[in-house]
Write a structure and sequence with these properties.
Helix content of chain A: 25-40%
Radius of gyration of chain A: 31 Å
Structural class of chain A: alpha/beta
Distance between the termini of chain B: 58 Å
CATH topology of the largest domain in chain A: FAD/NAD(P)-binding domain
CATH superfamily of the largest domain in chain A: FAD/NAD(P)-binding domain
Strand order of the largest sheet of chain A: 10-7-6-18-29
Strand content of chain B: 5-15%
Largest sheet of chain B: 5 strands, parallel
Number of domains of chain B: 3
Order of helices and strands of chain B: EHHEHEEHEHHEEEEHHHHH
CATH class of the largest domain in chain A: Alpha Beta
Number of helices of chain A: 16
Number of domains of chain A: 4
Shape of chain A: globular
Strand order of the largest sheet of chain B: 2-1-3-5-9
Largest sheet of chain A: 5 strands, parallel
CATH topology of the largest domain in chain B: Rossmann fold
CATH superfamily of the largest domain in chain B: NADH:ubiquinone oxidoreductase-like, 20kDa subunit
Distance between the termini of chain A: 33 Å
Largest interface: A-B, 27 and 32 residues
Shape of chain B: globular
CATH class of the largest domain in chain B: Alpha Beta
Oligomer: heterodimer
CATH architecture of the largest domain in chain B: 3-Layer(aba) Sandwich
């Protein structure tokens, strides 16, 4: 089908969208005016173009009027471009010769004066008619898929995503930078709103992931570099040297009790010590130790080597080097989770200064049966029992001026849980909670909160805490009860700050490696906040869990499932079809200046150097499968060699001209 | 075979283009063998009256250099168009406006104020300014009108071909003469130089571009092996048509853009600004706040003179709007 003939036959279909458009725009007049344009063979209107009869009308008109390209003057292309392109394809046209003139969001919805709005709708549509006249007949680009996935981050979201993809029958690499998977959830005591023991529900999943025939665990590993594109990524993963040969280590645990080094345990949030050779916690998966080289006497001073002497099977390897492995993957799921906003940033509350002012996660360890106190709530400063505890919500959250502007979402519920669990453990104790609002949107959440206040009698005070300071062995909390207007002072044994959560450290580096975006708070930015919440703007890269925004466990797990299902549906085809509206490099024009190459956010451009008659010629070369058609190269190219398909830079002027007529 | 008739003319130009004809050295003799030169202001005394008397289209090829700055320039452009079969915009001024068109940042009044009053060496108490006519005892004298805006030749009359350069280099001049004399011509409207940008012929080693900071030419001794842009020195090469034999580059000076834009581009200066803005500090983009961006950009001391040195009159903006 030659649709680039010299005399195009354009059909223009103007949609009323009920009264959404027709209420403000004289749609008949738009059709009438457009029909006068050169090359327009038909222009008509209908009440709902996207409806079945509307689409049928379009198909019939295309046939009757022998149209070879169409413009639908309707709503935003993000809504129905696909609908109308499929419809025009079904009518035998090239789908890329169907264009949308947005006269709803760009016109009828934002104007009131009908005469002026009509005039504007005519102009918008005229310029799109001009565009469609120059649209080439394009075919989708077929890209083969590597049906393997990489999941970055081994917390609950990553584990779930990996399990779901692996259960779908596809090889999945689960990459975790710590030596064990489990993430933050492994540290939690019990979980709201059911008070399930966190480890009891998580560890079976960890073991399942480790034993799954389709999952390859790459713990103590970090993503070093990502190249390639949708369906065909190459992921370089750095395996940090564990100094223990995991392939022969049985995980007997004989080595670490003898290690003379004692440093604060990350898993116990600094409330207990660990050794230099260690596993983070007894239920670690894989349950194999690593040597922390920063603290090991051998690496620091060249002495000791006790672990080597103890290990009967000779698994200790002080000379182990880091290793880079490269895996091919068709899709990547990013589930790198969150970290707590640093306590020391909350200096008004004595964060980081007073041992008895602690973060939520530290309190989890105090509550946990596997924690340093065996689940007894004891003060970090002197190990004495806690009788009065103050919980401070929104510590760093919802504070536009000083800290984080957003709501960290999980803290209302975990504070309710903290207060409840504390009361369960210390029956004569007092749990005071300062809050701005209590947000309990979630299944069974409000009921849980009700139990905390009404059955366990936690004392909630609406108001912000202004200051926390030490007085003797007490922490004194100053706040205001905004419901009564009275100043409140509480002398407590312990203050727990529900610190804001922020994306895990390293997210900015990872973002660059993956070429995905983050929002103003550093959380991964989804392709569309409502309609594509688990996809990144880079095709083939998906998000799960708190890396994309604060989330609790059920939300993280369901998002992980959603990301996995996106991956699985992608893997269900042998080829991917990609929109052909991409860039082109005109080799007859390219002079090889190299300006475009570093700019391409998708790595689709590279320099190709050929040598002929001793003369080197450099040209930019485009990988069509990688190109997303963003146009960065085309705007930067100083010689006009890089262009968008349909020659947008030139056609744009024609489109502007008809608007200015 | 009868000899072809050719003519040269200079409008608002420095005269360099006229001399450039002679840069082809002894080859001028071959041309004279094949062509009569009817007009050549730098070398011959041809009167306008004689030109007017010639039959229309009696000049086979007219090489017109210089921009249109005065009514005289414009009048001659129309006259030569009428008398010539082929009119060639010869050199950057006729082609794109070139240096004279940088005066489009001002208007007639501002230029006259500066030239006839404000310059440090001027004493002009009576405020005498050029006039288009005045009476002397021999009668009324007319001098051409000075326009507000400098135009390119094709903004005044239809132009058949263009020879780029400030001035056009001997190789392309010679090539153009051969084309005209043999009749082996590209389609009308063509610029008689290669379509690729200068980087194509530039032998320097080029990296994939990221530019950390900008240096002016005097601030840094450029490594003659390496791409200027890679060294932070603005070179218009990527946005400039090739064909000059990269003479400036050979002299270890960056391209300033005299061959004009490449055919796929609408506006040379805008393109280069866009290119430079794209690659400037692209590697540590994240750390750039507005102040740092400002600092970086402020290292470009003369944006119009850098990016539009030759092309201002033919660009989208054409001139500064003065209210």
């Amino acid at each position: 089908m030659d649709t680039n003939s010299s005399s195009p036959r354009v059909g223009v279909f103007v949609c009323h969208c009920g009264s959404n458009i027709a209420g403000t725009v004289d749609v008949e007049k738009v059709a009438q005016e457009i029909s006068k344009m050169e090359g327009v063979a038909y222009a008509g209107s209908y009440i709902y173009m996207c409806s079945d009869p509307g689409q049928k009308l379009m198909r019939e008109t295309i046939e009757k009027e022998k149209l070879d390209r169409i413009v639908v003057a309707a709503c935003s292309p993000t809504l129905h471009e696909k609908t109308f392109r499929i419809n025009s394809k079904n009518a035998g046209l090239n789908p890329y010769q169907c264009e949308i003139s947005n006269i709803r969001e760009h016109c009828s919805w934002v104007h009131e004066d009908k005469a002026k709005a009509t005039e504007k709708a005519i102009k918008i549509t005229k310029s799109i008619v001009e565009k469609v006249k120059n649209d080439s007949s394009l075919t989708d680009i077929e890209v083969p898929i590597t049906k393997k996935a990489v999941v970055i981050g081994g917390g609950v979201a990553g584990i779930q995503a990996a399990l779901d993809i692996a259960n779908g029958g596809y090889k999945t690499y689960l990459v975790e930078r710590d030596s064990s998977i489990g993430g933050k959830m492994a540290k939690l005591s019990e979980t709201f709103p059911t008070l399930d023991c966190s480890q009891c529900i998580l560890t079976p999943k960890m073991v399942e992931a480790a034993n799954h025939p389709n999952i390859e665990l790459l713990t103590y590993s970090e993503v070093e570099n990502v190249s390639g594109y949708l369906g065909n990524f190459k992921v370089k993963i750095k395996k940090k040297p564990t100094s223990v040969k995991w392939d022969i280590c049985t995980g007997c645990g004989d080595c670490y009790p003898k290690c003379p080094v004692k440093v604060p345990s990350e898993f116990q949030e600094g409330l207990a010590k660990r050794t230099a050779i260690y596993t983070p916690f007894p239920q670690a998966v894989p349950n194999k130790p690593v040597i922390d080289r920063e603290n090991c006497l051998y690496y620091q001073k060249g002495i000791c080597k006790i672990c080597e002497k103890i290990c009967k099977i000779g698994a200790i390897d002080f000379e182990m080097q880091e290793e880079i492995v490269e895996v091919d993957a068709g899709a990547i799921v990013v589930a790198t989770g969150y970290q707590e906003y640093p306590l020391q940033n909350l200096s008004d509350y004595g964060g980081g200064r007073y041992p008895n002012v602690i973060s939520g996660l530290k309190f989890e360890r105090l509550l946990s049966a596997s924690g340093p106190t065996g689940g007894q709530v004891l003060r970090p400063s002197d190990g004495k029992p806690v009788k009065d505890v103050v919980f401070v919500q929104c510590a760093g959250s919802r504070d536009i001026e000083e800290h984080k502007p957003y709501c960290s979402k999980i803290c209302c519920m975990y504070t309710a849980k903290h207060a409840m669990l504390f009361k369960h453990k210390v029956h004569d104790g007092n749990a005071y909670v300062f809050y701005i609002d209590v947000r309990t949107a979630g299944k069974d959440y409000e009921e849980f909160y009700y139990r905390t206040t009404e059955e366990d009698h936690a004392l909630y005070t609406r108001g912000k805490v202004s200051k926390i300071f030490e007085d003797g062995d007490k922490v004194v909390v100053w706040g205001v009860d905004t419901l009564t207007g009275k100043k409140v002072e509480i002398r407590a044994d312990l203050a727990v700050l529900a610190t804001a959560i922020e994306p895990s450290s390293g997210i900015m580096e990872l973002k660059q490696k993956l070429k995905v975006s983050v929002d103003e708070n550093g959380f991964l930015k989804e392709a569309h906040p409502k309609l594509r919440p688990v996809e990144s703007m880079t095709s083939g890269i998906f998000f799960a869990g708190a890396a994309q925004g604060p989330k609790d466990i059920p939300e993280s797990v369901s998002q992980a499932g959603a990301a996995a299902s996106k991956v699985l549906s992608m893997f269900s085809a042998d080829f991917l079809h990609k929109e052909p509206l991409i860039c082109e490099i005109n080799e007859d024009v390219c002079s090889g200046c190299g300006i475009c190459i570093m700019l391409c956010p998708y790595g689709a451009l590279e320099a190709e150097i050929t040598t002929k008659d001793n003369k080197e010629t450099k040209r930019s070369k485009l990988n069509e499968a990688l190109c997303q058609g963003c146009g960065t190269c085309s705007s930067a190219c100083p010689s006009g060699a890089a262009t968008m398909r349909n020659d947008i830079s030139k056609n744009m002027f024609k489109m502007i001209e008809v608007i200015l007529e | 075979m009868s000899k072809a008739n050719i003519a040269f003319y200079w409008a608002a130009s420095c005269g360099g283009c006229e001399i450039a004809v002679l840069d082809i050295n002894e080859k001028i003799l071959d041309i004279i063998e094949k062509a009569n030169i009817l007009m050549w202001p730098v070398a011959m005394d041809t009167k306008y009256e004689d030109l007017k008397k010639m039959k229309d289209k009696s000049i086979d090829v007219c090489f017109f250099n210089g921009a249109i700055r005065t009514s005289e320039n414009e009048e001659l452009a129309h006259l030569l168009r009428k008398k010539s079969k082929i009119l060639v915009a010869f050199g950057s001024c006729a082609h794109e406006g070139c240096i004279p068109a940088l005066a489009n940042l001002f208007n007639k009044k501002l230029i006259f104020d500066r030239a006839y009053q404000e310059t440090e060496t001027t004493v002009n108490k009576e405020n005498t300014l050029p006039m288009t006519s005045f009476d002397v005892k021999e009668g009324e004298i007319h001098i051409p009108e000075f326009y507000d805006t400098v135009k390119t030749l094709d903004q005044v009359v239809e132009v058949d071909y263009y020879l780029p350069g400030c001035p056009p280099t001997p190789n392309i001049v010679e090539d153009a003469f051969n084309k005209f004399l043999t009749g082996d011509l590209p389609p009308k409207g063509a610029v008689l130089a290669p379509v690729k940008a200068l980087c194509d012929e530039c032998p320097r080693k080029k990296k994939d571009k990221t530019i950390e900071t900008i240096y002016r030419v005097y601030e840094k001794e450029a490594d003659p092996e390496k791409c200027f842009l890679d060294q932070g020195i603005i070179c218009m090469g990527p946005a400039t048509r090739s064909g000059c034999g990269h003479q400036c580059i050979k002299g270890n000076m960056p391209c300033t853009g005299c061959f004009g834009k490449t055919p796929e581009v609408n506006d040379q200066g805008a393109k280069m600004i866009s290119a430079l803005a794209s690659v400037l500090a692209v590697e540590n983009e994240i750390e750039l706040d507005e102040k740092k961006v400002e600092e970086l950009i402020s290292k470009i001391k003369d944006p119009v003179g850098t990016f539009y040195r030759y092309s201002l009159a033919s660009s989208f903006i054409k001139r500064k709007v003065i209210k």
